[in-house]
């Protein structure tokens, strides 16, 4: 896919798009990078130490995993059970809740600039102020909405803990990003996304060309990702090494929460914290070919939050405008 410059598309959005459109090849695999595990135990007393560890891991590989994070495994499994129930609804029901502006359901509709083909998945996004009638009814899916709201809250809390550490390291007060992701505001735009990558039918297994999720960076400040045991495929390629196209697998482990830095925090940190390319590759022959479920929470600063460059490297921009421009450049306004 080629980037078409329009007067409304700013340079930063086009530069990201150009980079992304060069990331569609298979590349090679390397296991020499370490995706570090960081304990959040005794968080309040250890915040400064944890902040140092998170910063080092983020600067190094950009992906890291949280342990002792305080979310019960039972809650994570229950959220996945809800996601499975949602995706098992008939298509005619899901189609009543179509994706618009980061909220709602889509299937095989997200075309990544890296691949030019649609991700082989369906997803359902929950962005609180935008939900209107986008939750399935209690008759269709009893208990779903309440369970998802509770899980969204837990994910937000973890996200804000991690962001409070990055705030410290950037010289902001610890509540700086919590205010920027204020849930009580109508400008809130953080998103919980349920993902279902389709099982690969036997006849397709010999010639897998489409991607489960094409290579991309996330637009947000921080992504919190839950993976399921045995359902692998996530790979990362640090942006600073993108010329080499060497990918490192992040094996799923339901006991950890995987995190990555997004483009918004990269800009907010004057590029000190890199957002990194990642993708979900298809299973290889002999690997598990069943469905893959994952859940992501995107900490996207509120629309009216002002992203101000600490050193003046970038002009100030609201998070709403920033996201709008990135989405328009990559996807023609849909996501
Ligand atoms: O499903 C995954 O493991 C990754 C999903 C992802 O990268 C995204 O939705 O942005
Ligand atoms: Fe992503």
From TrEMBL:
EC number: 1.13.12.19, 1.14.20.7
Keyword entries, A-Z: Ethylene biosynthesis, Iron, Metal-binding, Oxidoreductase
Name of this protein: 2-oxoglutarate-dependent ethylene/succinate-forming enzyme
UniProt key word Protein biosynthesis: no
Pathway, per record: Alkene biosynthesis; ethylene biosynthesis via 2-oxoglutarate
Catalysed reactions, as listed in the record: 2-oxoglutarate + O2 + 2 H(+) = ethene + 3 CO2 + H2O; L-arginine + 2-oxoglutarate + O2 = guanidine + L-glutamate 5-semialdehyde + succinate + CO2
Cofactors, names only: Fe(2+)
Span of domain Fe2OG dioxygenase: 187-301
A molecular function (GO) term: 2-oxoglutarate oxygenase/decarboxylase (ethylene-forming) activity
Keyword Nuclease tagged: no
């Amino acid at each position: 896919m080629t980037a078409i410059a329009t007067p409304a598309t700013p340079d930063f959005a086009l530069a990201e798009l150009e980079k992304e459109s060069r990331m569609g090849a298979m590349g090679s695999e390397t296991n020499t990078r370490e995706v570090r595990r960081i304990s959040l135990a005794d968080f309040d007393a250890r915040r400064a130490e944890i902040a140092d560890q998170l910063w080092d891991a983020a600067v190094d590989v950009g992906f890291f995993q949280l342990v002792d994070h305080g979310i019960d495994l039972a809650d994570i499994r229950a959220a996945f059970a809800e996601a499975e129930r949602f995706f098992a609804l008939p298509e005619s029901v899901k189609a009543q809740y179509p994706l618009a502006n980061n909220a709602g359901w889509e299937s095989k509709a997200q075309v990544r600039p890296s691949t030019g083909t649609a991700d082989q998945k369906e997803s359902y996004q929950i962005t609180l102020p935008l939900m209107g009638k986008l939750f399935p009814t209690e008759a269709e899916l009893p208990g779903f909405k309440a369970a998802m709201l509770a899980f969204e809250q837990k994910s937000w809390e973890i996200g804000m803990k991690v962001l409070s550490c990055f705030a410290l390291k950037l010289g902001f007060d610890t509540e700086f990003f919590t205010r920027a992701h204020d849930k009580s505001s109508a400008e809130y735009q953080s998103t919980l996304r349920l993902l279902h990558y389709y099982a690969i039918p036997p006849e397709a297994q010999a010639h897998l060309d489409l991607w489960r999720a094409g290579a991309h960076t996330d637009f947000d400040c921080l992504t919190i990702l839950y993976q399921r045991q045995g359902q692998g495929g996530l790979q990362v390629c640090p942006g600073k090494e993108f010329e080499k196209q060497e990918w490192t697998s992040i094996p799923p482990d339901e006991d950890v929460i995987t995190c990555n830095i997004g483009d918004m925090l990269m800009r907010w940190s004057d590029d000190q914290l890199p957002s990194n390319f990642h993708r979900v590759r298809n299973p290889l022959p002999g690997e598990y070919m069943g469905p893959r479920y994952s859940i992501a929470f995107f900490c996207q600063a509120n629309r009216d939050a002002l992203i101000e460059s600490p050193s003046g490297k970038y002009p100030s921009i609201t998070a709403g405008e920033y996201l709008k421009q990135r989405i328009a450049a990559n996807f023609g306004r849909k996501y």
